[in-house]
Amino acid sequence: MIKLHRLDGHEIVLNEELIETIQSVPDTLITLTTGNKLVVKESVDAVISLVQSYQRSTLPPPTLGDQGTR
Fold first, then answer.
1. Beta bridge partners of 29
2. CA pair distance 33, 11, nearest whole angstrom
3. Separation between Cα atoms, residue 6 and residue 14, nearest integer Å
4. Residue 16, C-beta contacts closer than 8 angstroms, at least 6 positions apart
5. Number of independent structural domains in the chain
6. pLDDT tens track for 6-26
7. Which residues touch 59 (CB under 8 Å, ≥6 apart)?
8. Of the N and C termini of the chain, which has fewer Cβ atoms inside 10 Å?
């Protein structure tokens, strides 16, 4: 879940897995997989950063064998 702000300043919490597309038209328009659309204050890059941060925070910690060396 990520926190965003509508244009009127109200905070919303969005399930980032529902995001289908993000556009700058000129405001940031988020289209969800449900077909609903949200216009938010955050920039496209800020929304992407929030999604990436959230997804990283939900990953399980690497195990000893997952250090990427082969």
1. 23, 39
2. 21
3. 11
4. 1, 2, 50, 51, 54, 55
5. 1
6. 999 999 999 999 999 999 999
7. none
8. C
Domain membership of residue 34 (yes or no) is yes
Report phi then psi at 65, rounded to 5.
-80, -5
d(CA 30, CA 59): 24
pLDDT of the residue at 19 = 98
What is the tens place of the pLDDT at every residue in 37-67?
999 999 999 999 999 999 999 888 878 766 6
Tokens of 15: 């399930």
> Global pTM?
0.81
Contact call for residues 11 and 4 (beta carbons, < 8 A): yes
Residues written for the chain: 70
